Amino acid sequence: MIQNNLEKYTIQLPKKLNFVLKKIDSNSNGIVFITNLENKLIGSLSDGDIRRGMMKNQVTKYVNINSKYINKKPFFLNYNSDVKKILSYLESKKNKKKYKCIPLVDNKKVIQDISTIESLRKYPIINLKIDNSEINNVIDAMKSGWISSAGSFVSQFEENFSKYLGGGYSITTTSGTTALELALKSLQIGLGDEVILPNLSFAASINSIINVGAKPVVVDVNPKTWTIDCNRILEKISSKTKAIMPVHIYGQPCEMDKIKKIAKSKNIYIVEDAAEALGATYKNAKIGLHGDCSCFSFYANKTITTGEGGMVVFKKKKYFKLANQIKNHGMSRKKFYFHETVGSNYRMTNIQAAIGISQLKKIKSLILSRRRIFQYYNKRLRKFNYINLLPENNWSTNSYWLYTILIKNLGTKKREKLIKNLLKKGIETRPAFYPFNSMNIYKKYCSGSYKFSEKIANNSISLPSTSISHYDQDLIIDILIKEINKLI
């Protein structure tokens, strides 16, 4: 359980009535718990208790422990009580008096925590996995004096990343978004060029294309995979098409053989948006080496993180060399401050890379942990006929990034209500990415039908996906189903 600020909920007497009222008002739950000097629970006082005391003329300028309107037997639970038990008292309609907050005490009745619906237990969508190995690496980077982009951890991280994928030329960047931009610039994609991408993705995909001056061409997804529909790619290829940007959405690999066949026949590039797919496989090969280049994100909610940061992995060395120059303002490697191409600053810091190296060493255990969580969700949720799970097939494995389900006929309004209701119970969830054709800034790049991406986007929700036990998942699922049934 998350420790509350006990100061907001506890008080020692005697105190002026005005002070007590302000204290009650400050925590928004209409009650304070009275303790002795050792913080032992000895009573409670609510705004209702004070009103009743006023009606009986029992209230004076000062409140003390002998005031007759104080509740000398407040309800409490042991600090070791499990979440379900606490919830049963916070939510139960059978209680004549609804408990807005409950003091949790040890065996000596000393208050250790205050439990409310909002702070009972927090299940964040993603939990960071940072320990001493990352901290020690950061300290080493700082002690070396190389805290910016020049430092040994940067090149080491790049080399380790290529080894993990099984090949390629890796380049660190400031983010997954700039990784995409750098990839496009290195392939010399820009003004007058077109790049085909799916309607269902995070905005970084389409923004990167716009930011290099090219035109995004948006197509629908395949409902069986949730990824770009290869038939729609063929329909949209023109003489201006320079690349395809397949997005491995929610860690689900695209049909890369089909995409490669199209790209080869039309002599166009493949720029994989693998921001969510680190660790995923396509036909037993890790995602990242199927196209001309692939782009990964190390944002805080990704499988491994550097806080902010990204990586581009090129298949060919010539693009790798150009990308290295572009990311450093286009500067010559032979002459300092002499620029040979138009570039920018896409450089990851040595401190970030130090974190990345440690994170990458843990990737196997991080993915295994998420897979366990995904499999248990699937086991429990597949029996509900109004829920569709993430696609599964025999030619790929998911990266287990963010557990996402489609709730049939939910719609965006009910979904927003569901998200708010779950958050009140301490469960953080996320809507699916809004389809590009639904947003005014991208509509000019969209034409035709997008019924499958719209269906997925408008009815899907992502659940807490890391650092939870099966017990936690049971609680999340029970509350989820209960809240869904209120809405459909």
Walk me through the structure.
This protein has 488 residues and is of the alpha/beta class. It has 3 domains: 6-116, Roll (CBS-domain); 132-361, Type I PLP-dependent aspartate aminotransferase-like (Major domain) (Aspartate Aminotransferase, domain 2, 3-Layer(aba) Sandwich), CATH 3.40.640; 363-487, Aspartate Aminotransferase, domain 1, CATH 3.90.1150. It has 15 helices and 22 strands. The longest helix is centred in the last third of the chain and has 19 residues, at 363-381. The chain is elongated. 43% of the residues are buried.
Count of spatially separate domains: 3
Radius of gyration: 28 Å
The CATH superfamily of the largest domain bears the name Type I PLP-dependent aspartate aminotransferase-like (Major domain)
What is CATH's topology name of the largest domain? Answer: Aspartate Aminotransferase, domain 2
Please tally the β strands and state the result. Answer: 22
Helix/strand-derived category reads alpha/beta
Strand order of the largest sheet: 9-17-16-13-12-10-11
User: Hey, roughly how much beta strand do the residues contain?
Assistant: 15-25%
| Uncertain parts | none
- Shape-level CATH architecture of the largest domain: 3-Layer(aba) Sandwich
